[in-house]
Write a structure and sequence with these properties.
The structure holds 2 protein chains of 2 kinds. Chain A has 2 domains: 127 residues, Rossmann fold, CATH 3.40.50.1370; 152 residues, Aspartate/ornithine carbamoyltransferase (Rossmann fold), CATH 3.40.50.1370. By secondary structure, chain A is α/β, with parallel strands linked by helices. The radius of gyration of chain A is 19 Å and the shape is globular. In chain A, strands 7-6-5-8-9 form a 5-stranded parallel β-sheet. Chain B has 2 domains: 120 residues, Urease, subunit C, domain 1, CATH 2.30.40; 307 residues, Metal-dependent hydrolases (TIM Barrel, Alpha-Beta Barrel). Chain B has 13 helices and 19 strands. In chain B, the strands form 4 sheets. In chain B, strands 1, 2, 3, 4, 5, 17, 18 and 19 form an 8-stranded mixed β-sheet that branches. A 6-stranded parallel β-sheet of chain B has the order 9-10-11-14-15-16. In chain B, helix 3 links the parallel strand 9 and strand 10. The longest helix of chain B has 16 residues. Chain B starts with 9 loop residues before the first strand and ends with a strand. The chains are: A alpha/beta, B alpha/beta. Chains A and B meet through helix 4 of A and helix 5 of B.
Chain lengths: 303, 450
């Protein structure tokens, strides 16, 4: 079965025009001025993995649109007893779900669920695969500050290999012709990453990545996903940590972004995190209107 | 095991085109089967007298019964996936008259009792079943099983398939003891220390899908080590299961040039598909070793064409729907393959790559018997065929009356829902293929006609 209309499983197969439509619609969404577009709808938040930002902002977004939300987490539910993903999906559907928002440690889990359910499924992060709502809110944030994607250069620095955010952002930015530079050690920024989308290149040198860059996206080293990789953190800090001095290498008006959670003192210093060019908190704020737009689109109310 | 001594009948296969690579025959021939053996092979119309039954093979290829060196029939212990009865029915439908079963069942086939159990007529096998025994107890890779008694009971090789034998010393001991008994050692070559949590081949596609990938090196490094060991152990016989990478192939080519007793098999899915063919986390594309890169596939196709590859083996690995319809990374490895092997070989190797049918038949017959000695227990002594034992993989006079008859031009569509296997896990559902089995004959008896 094809996924239901309105599903958002990833950025890779989304058209540029659809992305722009979503971002434009998000500008009209304001959690302070609730619009009952989802009045009476039930949004089930199915979280198999820890999350603060994504979960909270999907919940606020759904409630701001007048929906009920139900949170289902793997601990404290039948998932703990060994219920399969598809059975859980059918159960939530039978319990009245109109939309399922799913976060899962395995790549492709939202796709599997969408193939078997007749309601929209929204991917809130699946393993190392995609995190489409994060890429959309990052794009939204970039456009608030850069007005257009045209001619932009974006550096993504850190653990790209394990990052679903990096994959979604590469797909998204590439669709608009943005020059993308991935930067990190070979284990975390493998050469194969250039095959992800047109306009992506890899460098080992942070100076190279920062030169004439408009947007700096930092990523956390995902120690929980390293699985036997040996990363010397001291070496990582020496080579790739974003410091105030390094930030000066980028364009004067460069912006610093990070999907969070940030680890101060590792991928960036506090000076950078709290500095004038940092949009880390603003990104979280933008998460709500963007996810409102995603939910409205899910039930065909994005008009 | 089908006992030919009890069979009292004759069957004359007329007007077919015989391909018997072991006997270097590729010509129109009639074949007379009598009392479970080949009684006569002669030019059309030259066989005198009458038979109980005639089979008109006009327009068809008559070949020695196909042999599959690598099959998982899931018994004992996992009969919800497959049984000897259903698995051998699928084998018969695919033209296989003999299959070698893997010991990674529950429990593992590591004792004489289980070898005997597998051979009992109560299992309802439609074709000859040659069990492969575990090389180490419970396939834990530590203590060797009792090769000698397992061999006497009818095991034809040893392996810890599904798992590799990683420990150098254990592998050395296995090859030494195997060498003494002329017993082939089958290795699933995968350095599992490098493939933890991996679910497909490491490449552009695995990166895009966010799946951890198995590198080609994880296969090649084990093959390299095994080849090195085997070359220095007298009489050692190493068989590399489901070889899938160009790098591993290079090691084996080197070993073969050095005249080491190293053989290998290739699966139909590895010569048909690549990692780029997998779409949308479809777990019917998940197997181990995984579908590899286009250049790996190309290297394998060359080896199939140039005579380096010894056999096509299916690695038929049935799983229940609930073990496959799940998160890709958690889904079981493996696909069924008995019913599609010949058609994929004809479609992909013969029609697309112009590999002669003679060579394809060789990969299903004379090739496999080079890898293992398919002896009937009790009828042979160590190492060589003796009086009373049946020759397989050829149709020379007095060999086993195991015959596969197929139409190399017949177009058909494979429907997984109609498979004889208990399971449906295949990426080839709905594929239009060329080449179909018309009759499968085991010990002179037609066990499948299609």
């Amino acid at each position: 079965m094809n996924p239901a209309r309105g599903s958002l499983l990833g950025i890779e197969h989304l058209e540029a025009a659809e992305i722009l439509r979503l971002l434009k619609f998000a500008r009209r969404m304001n959690p302070a001025k609730p619009r009952p577009l989802l009045k009476g709808s039930r949004v089930f938040l199915l979280f198999y993995e820890a999350s603060t930002r994504t979960r909270c902002s999907f919940e606020v977004a759904a409630k701001s649109l007048g929906a009920y939300t139900v949170l289902v987490q793997s601990s404290g539910s039948s998932i703990e007893k060994g219920e399969s993903l598809l059975d859980t999906g059918h159960t939530l559907r039978a319990a009245g779900a109109d939309i399922i928002v799913i976060r899962h440690p395995n790549a492709g889990a939202p796709w599997l669920m969408a193939q078997h359910l007749d309601i929209p499924v929204i991917n809130a992060g699946d393993g190392m695969h995609e995190h489409p709502s994060q890429a959309l809110l990052d794009a939204y944030t970039i456009l608030r500050h850069k007005k257009t994607f045209k001619g932009l250069q974006v550096a993504i620095i850190g653990d790209i290999f394990h990052s679903r955010v990096a994959r979604s952002s590469c797909h998204l930015l590439s669709k608009f012709g943005v020059k993308i530079i991935l930067c990190g050690p070979p284990e975390l920024a493998p050469e194969i990453a250039t095959t992800l989308a047109p306009g992506v290149r890899v460098t080992r040198h942070i100076e190279d990545a920062l030169r004439s860059t408009d947007v700096i996206m930092l990523l956390r080293v995902q120690s929980e996903r390293l699985a036997g990789m040996k990363i010397d953190l001291a070496d990582y800090i020496a080579r790739y940590q974003m410091t105030a001095a390094r930030l000066k290498l980028a364009k004067k008006d460069a912006i610093v972004m990070h999907p969070g959670p940030i680890i101060r003192g590792l991928e960036l210093t506090s000076e950078v995190a709290d500095g004038a060019q940092s949009l880390i908190v603003e990104e979280v704020r933008h998460g709500v209107p963007v996810r409102m737009a995603i939910l409205a689109r899910a039930i065909g109310k994005m008009r | 095991m089908i006992n030919p001594a009890k069979i009292r009948s004759s069957l004359l296969i007329k007007r077919g085109h015989l391909i018997d690579p072991a006997a270097r025959i590729d010509a129109p021939m009639d074949v007379l089967l009598k009392d479970g053996r080949i009684a006569e092979v002669a030019a059309p119309g030259k066989i005198k007298g009458s038979a109980d039954e005639n089979f008109d093979a006009r327009g068809l290829i008559v070949a020695p019964g196909f042999i599959d060196l690598h099959v998982h029939l899931r018994e004992p212990g996992q009969s919800y996936k497959e049984t000897l009865a259903t698995g051998t029915a699928a084998a018969a439908a695919g033209g296989f008259t003999s299959i070698c079963t893997m010991p990674n069942t529950a429990p593992v086939v590591d004792s004489v009792e289980w070898i005997e159990w597998l051979r009992q007529p109560e299992r309802g096998a439609l074709v000859n079943v040659f069990p492969i025994a575990a090389a180490t107890r419970a396939s834990k890779g530590v203590a060797l099983t009792d090769f000698r008694t397992l061999q006497t009971a009818g095991a034809i090789a040893v392996t810890d398939d599904g798992k590799p034998i990683l420990d150098d010393n254990v592998m050395r001991e296995v090859l030494i003891l195997g060498g003494e008994l002329n017993f082939p050692v089958v290795q699933h070559a995968e350095d599992t220390r490098l493939t933890e949590n991996c679910s497909m081949h490491a490449g552009a596609r695995s990166f895009r899908l966010g799946l951890r990938g198995m590198t080609a090196a994880a296969e090649a490094s084990i093959v390299e080590r095994d080849v090195q060991l085997a070359m220095h152990i007298p009489n050692a016989r190493l068989h590399v299961a489901h070889l899938s990478t160009a790098d591993a192939l290079k090691c084996v080519r080197r070993a073969k040039r050095a005249k080491a007793r190293v053989t290998f098999e290739v699966t139909p899915h590895h010569f048909t598909l690549t990692d780029e063919d997998m779409r949308d986390y479809d777990s019917n594309y998940k197997m181990n070793p995984p579908l590899r890169s286009a250049s790996d596939r190309e290297a394998i196709l060359v080896a199939l064409a140039d005579g380096t590859a010894d056999a096509i083996a299916t690695d038929h690995a049935p799983h229940a729907a609930h073990e496959k319809e799940m998160e890709f990374e958690r889904a079981a490895f493996g696909i069924i393959g008995l019913e599609t092997a010949l058609a994929l070989a004809i479609t992909k190797l013969h029609r697309e790559r112009r590999i002669p049918l003679f060579r394809i038949v060789e990969l299903f017959t004379a090739g496999p018997v080079r890898c293992f000695d398919l002896r009937d227990p009790g009828s042979s002594v160590r190492g060589s065929l003796v009086h009373g034992s049946l020759l397989r993989g050829t149709l020379v006079r007095s060999s086993a009356a195991d015959v596969t008859i197929f139409d190399p031009k017949k177009k058909w569509t494979f429907e997984a829902s109609k498979s004889r296997s208990k399971s449906r896990n295949t990426p080839f559902d709905g594929w239009q293929l060329t080449g179909k089995v018309v009759a499968t004959i085991v010990a002179g008896k037609i066990v499948h006609s299609g």
